[in-house]
Design brief:
Organism: Streptomyces showdoensis
Low-confidence stretches: 1-9, 107-118, 337-344
InterPro entries: Sig_transdc_resp-reg_C-effctor, TrmB-like, Tscrpt_reg_LuxR_C, WH-like_DNA-bd_sf
Number of strands: 10
Protein name: Transcriptional regulator
Keywords: Coiled coil
Strand order of the largest sheet: 3-9-8-7-4-5-6-10
Strand content: 5-15%
Shape: elongated
Order of helices and strands: HHHHEEHEHEHEHEEEEHEHHHH
Number of domains: 4
CATH superfamily of the largest domain: Endonuclease Chain A
GO molecular function, one term: DNA binding
Mean pLDDT: 77
Length: about 350
């Protein structure tokens, strides 16, 4: 190819030509291939940057001591780009959710859902278990339309009879009652009997491999949830007002549709046998909400290695996202092993 012909190509076409040449002669260095195509220094840098940005060149391996670049196949590069964008979106959503929750908690009774009469939102932190119990008892008499609850663990034995009594009174008044539990409670004999009793009373019960927190919602005006979703014994947030409660209803609805009706459990999924211990450890930490940086510190590896481990785990579990990988891992029992605490 002549220098004039190369110069006539657009920058992206030059980069494509260079990429094809690199794939055709993988043993040649980047500079050798660029020189063969008679690219100027400026054109080489532009093509290099474009191929790196597209994920077609692994820039981590291009150094003066090791000038031969690692050429990435197009399909692999595309998957990496999609994963990067998905991770960026998930991180942004998580940050937005944390900021929203913090604002709701701090604003308290001064938070307003809008200018409509009666739209005021009240938020109260309750650290007295007796008061929480009174609120739930009062709710049984005041609720008009629906009570939705989710629970990460089993119900205490001494509370089962009371919960059934609340169910009888609510259902008798035409209140729709939904209850969601972690699939783990299906292995507890007392809970199996309790769920069967609730179902017999008319409560709609579902089991889910992942239940994010304890929560009780009533109508569009009441929400009870922990200040720390990872600590069921933490103080409770008591929120009133449709503007705030509807956001929790949306979260509940998403989890509810992903859960399985009680008595119609899907057969347990099998898989994950190809995961090594390092991949399993990374999976357990990610499923517990630990950030990539802390996973890297806990495992003593780089962020690049963590990203590789996540990609390998998702491929092994045939998952399109981290969330799907977590759900599948829970169904397969891959999260039942050692847990890792949260790092600072």
């Amino acid at each position: 190819m002549s220098k004039n012909a190369a110069g006539a190509r657009a920058g992206s076409e030059q980069a494509l030509t260079l990429y094809q040449a690199l794939r055709a002669t993988p043993a040649d260095s980047f500079e050798v291939v660029a020189a063969r195509l008679e690219l100027s220094g400026t054109e080489r840098e532009r093509c290099r940057d474009e191929l790196i940005a597209l994920g077609l060149l692994d820039h981590g391996h291009i150094t003066p001591e090791r000038p031969a670049p690692v050429v990435v196949a197009p399909d692999v590069a595309l998957l990496h780009l999609l994963q990067h964008e998905r991770d960026r979106l998930e991180n942004r959503l998580a940050e937005t959710s944390r900021a929203h929750t913090t604002l709701e908690t701090l604003a308290g009774p001064f938070l307003r859902a809008g200018l409509e009469p009666g739209s005021e939102v009240e938020v109260e932190i309750v650290d007295d278990p007796a008061q929480v119990h009174r609120e739930l008892a009062d709710l049984t008499e005041s609720v008009r339309d629906s009570v939705y609850s989710m629970l990460t663990g089993a119900v205490r034995r001494e509370e089962m009879a009371l919960e059934l009594e609340w169910d009888r009174r609510r259902v008798a008044r035409g209140v729709r009652v939904h209850a969601m539990y972690s699939q783990r409670v299906g292995a507890v004999p007392e809970m199996v009997q309790h769920l069967a009793a609730r179902t017999a009373l008319g409560v709609e019960v579902r089991l889910s491999p992942v239940v994010p927190m304890n929560m009780v919602l009533a109508d569009d005006n009441f929400a009870l949830l922990p200040t720390d979703p990872h600590d069921p014994e933490s103080a409770a947030i008591l929120a009133r007002g449709p503007g705030l409660v509807r956001s929790y209803r949306a979260l509940y609805g998403y989890c509810w549709h992903a859960a399985t009706p009680y008595g119609h459990e899907e057969p347990a999924e099998h898989g994950g046998d190809g995961l090594n211990e390092q991949q399993r450890a990374a999976l357990r930490m990610l499923a517990s909400g630990i950030k990539d940086e802390q996973v890297a510190r806990n495992l003593g590896v780089s962020l690049r290695t963590v990203s590789r481990l996540i990609s390998e785990v998702m491929q092994e579990l045939d998952a399109a996202s981290r969330f799907e990988a977590g759900v599948k891992a829970a169904r397969m029992g891959l999260l039942d092993g050692e847990t890792h605490g949260r790092g600072a």
